[in-house]
Amino acid sequence: MTARYPLLYFWLRLSSILLSTLMLVLPGLAQHLSLFLALLLIAVLGIPHGATDHRIFSVLLYRKGGKPMMKRFYGGYLGLMLIYALLWWLSPVFSLLIFLLTSMYHFGQSNWNYVNLRSWPKSLLYVLYGAFVLFVPILAHFESAQPIVASIIQRPLSQASPLLLNGGIGVVVVLNFGMIGLLWAVGKLTHQQAWAEVLNLFILLALFVSTPLLVGFALYFSGWHALSSIQDQIVFFQSQKPGYRLKDYVVEAMPYTGLAIFGLMMMIWYSNSIQMDAASGILFIFLSLVTLPHLVLIEMLYRIGQSAEVEWGATVPE
Questions:
Q1: CA nearest 287: which of 49, 34, 12?
Q2: What's the confidence (pLDDT) of residue 280?
Q3: 130 vs 139: CA distance, rounded Å
């Protein structure tokens, strides 16, 4: 991804370094504004990157079935969210495991989809990277994560020793650096790509360790993940509709972005508690509900959109 969008990653690196520095200089302000900053970043950047899923589906499969296919899309998309919401109510622990696994794969896919690997090694690569961006901030700020996770799974979470927490961070970090070295050694990454990925891991590691849990994850999710995904989607739409620009994406994403933000606010409003830990837990549950169907669709985009099955240049239905 870095090689495709060098300017984007330059600003992401710079903003991450500046935010890390600011949080170290003003730690009190950071803690006080952490939930607000997380919500702002996710609302402005994170949610919109999934707000054009209906457009992606229409490009991929509309010509195969017309309007009935779009009805299936809305029914399947909303149905999957409702089923997952019911599962959260019935079994929060199992639902959390699903969220972690699917998120790990999804985050890794957005970073590593450009690498030419066979199916299972590529999936392993995705999961390892996803483990880095999920577990490093959680383990680095376990005291902050503990009450949030407890509110999500509705049961107390046991303490963990610093040795275990730091050891977990070390294992995940070493595995990811090792994977980059292995990919470079077997010729799957150029020298420039390998160094760019190493630099990204170092900056993200510093960001996750130096910033509060919610702030670090929100910047990664909204910037490193969502913005690069938006870039990919715009490139895809441009292949179907010459002249498609960022402003077109913003216009198309606005209605569903507003609807998603409204849904998030309603979830927080109807919560039994509006304490920060409970609100943070609701935020992660909300993200899980919109991530699962989004992940399925993005998997289709990478699998079908890069194959001959899609008629490139076909008219995008309005």
A1: 49
A2: 66
A3: 14
Q: Contact 225/38 with Cβ under 8 angstroms? A: no
Q: pTM value?
A: 0.82
**Contact indicator for 133, 220 with CB cutoff of 8 Å:** yes
Break the chain down into helix, strand, coil percent, rounded to 5. Answer: 80, 0, 20
Instruction: Report the C-alpha gap between 31 and 211 in whole angstroms.
Output: 9
Asked if the model's pLDDT at residue 60 lies above 80, the reply is no
Candidates 115, 44, 90, 109; CA nearest to 261 is: 44
Q: Which two tokens stand for residue 74?
A: 């809305």
CA dihedral 252, 253, 258, 263 (to 10 degrees): 120
d(CA 225, CA 219): 9
The DSSP code for 305 is T
- What is the C-alpha to C-alpha distance for residues 43 and 164, in angstroms, rounded to an integer? 34
Are residues 30 and 213 in contact, defined by beta-carbon separation less than 8 angstroms?
no
| CB under 8 A, 24+ apart: contacts of 151-160 | 151/273, 151/277, 151/278, 151/280, 151/281, 152/92, 152/96, 152/281, 152/284, 152/285, 153/92, 153/93, 153/96, 154/92, 155/93
- Predicted local confidence at residue 135, as pLDDT: 95
The three-class DSSP label of residue 5 is: coil
In the DSSP assignment, the letter for residue 3 is T
Tell me the Ramachandran region of residue 103: left when phi exceeds 0, alpha when psi lies from -120 to 50, beta otherwise. Answer: alpha
Q: Summarize pLDDT for 109-137 with one digit per residue, the tens.
A: 889 988 888 888 899 999 999 999 999 99
Per-residue pLDDT tens digits for 185-218: 999 999 999 999 999 999 999 999 988 888 888 8
Mean pLDDT, residues 10-31: 81
